Amino acid sequence: MSNKRDEIIATTCRLMEMQGYHATGLNQILEESGAPKGSLYYYFPEGKEALAIEAIEHTSRLIAANLRAGMAAHDHPADAITDFLQTLAHYVQTSGFQAGGPITAIALEAASTNEALNAACRDAYQDWQAIVEAKLNEGGYTAVRARRLASLVIAVIEGAIILSRTQRNVAPLLDAATEIGVLLRC
Amino acid sequence: MSNKRDEIIATTCRLMEMQGYHATGLNQILEESGAPKGSLYYYFPEGKEALAIEAIEHTSRLIAANLRAGMAAHDHPADAITDFLQTLAHYVQTSGFQAGGPITAIALEAASTNEALNAACRDAYQDWQAIVEAKLNEGGYTAVRARRLASLVIAVIEGAIILSRTQRNVAPLLDAATEIGVLLRC
DNA sequence: CGGCGATTATAACGACTGGTCTAGTAATTG
DNA sequence: CAATTACTAGACCAGTCGTTATAATCGCCG
User: Over the stretch B110-167, which tens digit does the pLDDT of each residue have?
Assistant: First the structure.
């Protein structure tokens, strides 16, 4: 696996996280990654869409690893999830509200217009949700409620990121952290 | 106020709700609204961005009206918000998972790259949040908690829409409805 | 009916898009 | 060292983008 190829993927992740799929052109990816145009098509002969899918998969693995670590950091799911949200809030703030929700924009852009991208996003969300659900199951919630709560947690993460980035304020993420904690101990 | 102008705005709302700002080209808006190209610039001389801002403002007013009606439909905020989410779930499903979150994609695309669009989205979210917050205040929640919960509710709505549309399944919205109800009665 | 403002129709523009192609250079291997 | 494979660089392409310009047509009103 080459460095240039990784660089292209990483830059694609970053740009599509910030502005989505259609607003990210290949020339911008090339410029910001320093990769030559010939290399882009050498490594990604299927083109832009295939590159985006690789970027989604790459970022999905990173987030899954973060989620697993976050879930393992505390015994009680409430503490784990609250802490995860607080860490995320810090990350979003540190990025100047430019990062957060790595696939959110793509997921919406592609939900009904691009099957391949939609499938990649769907898989990512399902992987992440499964990690949270496993933690809730471990924490003693019934299977039915664990599934429902896991879905809600992912929704809250995505929604709170959108609000924080739009309002350029970390409060929505912190509010979400607090209230999810209340719900999970209810 | 002319019909053609309204038609253009309505089409813009629909297309940008489905796929976002950058994926929506003026030619598609023209084609689907049946408006002549000359008219587009006649009515919106400042161009695409100004049109999008009008669309955001237009849709924000509609959602605000829906939210007010939803909040007024029940005495207890828990019932009002739960019911609102269930109605929304039905709407998203009926659209074949193509609609929902009228400004979500734009909000993310523009969060750090387009100040005017970002401001329009920020105003919309704040208007909606204020409506939910007022209902919570009425319902006897402390001012601090009402504010926090209102933020969470908007986040949950946005997040659950993303998941439902990505997964083409109404469950995330229904799960959110159930668990928000639990939280608000906790 | 004519004048005037509102609206339409359409060609053209420059910039940018994703993608193709090809020759050249770099790296690896026997 | 030569052959082969990996990678680069840049020109080129057709198409699309948002916008401008301008003349023509439409609708309203006195």
Answer: 999 999 999 999 999 999 999 999 999 999 999 999 999 999 999 999 999 999 999 9
Residues of chain B contacting A183 with CB distance shorter than 8 Å: 179, 182-183, 186
- The verdict on a CB contact (< 8 Å) between A151 and B162 is no
Separation between the CA of B108 and the C1’ of C13 (whole angstroms):
32
Residue B1 has pLDDT above 60, yes or no: no
In eight-state DSSP terms, residue A186 is -
- Cα distance between residue B109 and residue B116, in whole Å: 12
Is there a domain that residue A22 lies in? no
Smallest Cα distance from A99 to chain B, Å: 9
Residue B1, classified by CB atoms within 10 Å of its CB into exposed (0-12), middle (13-18) or buried (19+), is exposed
Q: What is the CATH number of the domain that holds B94?
A: 1.10.357.10
Find where tokens 């709170």 sit. A160
Any domain includes B76: yes
Average pLDDT over residues B81-96: 98
- Is position A172 within any domain? yes
Using the CA of B36, which nucleotide's C1' is the nearest one?
C8
Domain count, chain A: 1
Three-state SS string over A4-16 comes to HHHHHHHHHHHHH
Containing domain of residue A164, as a range?
Answer: 56-184
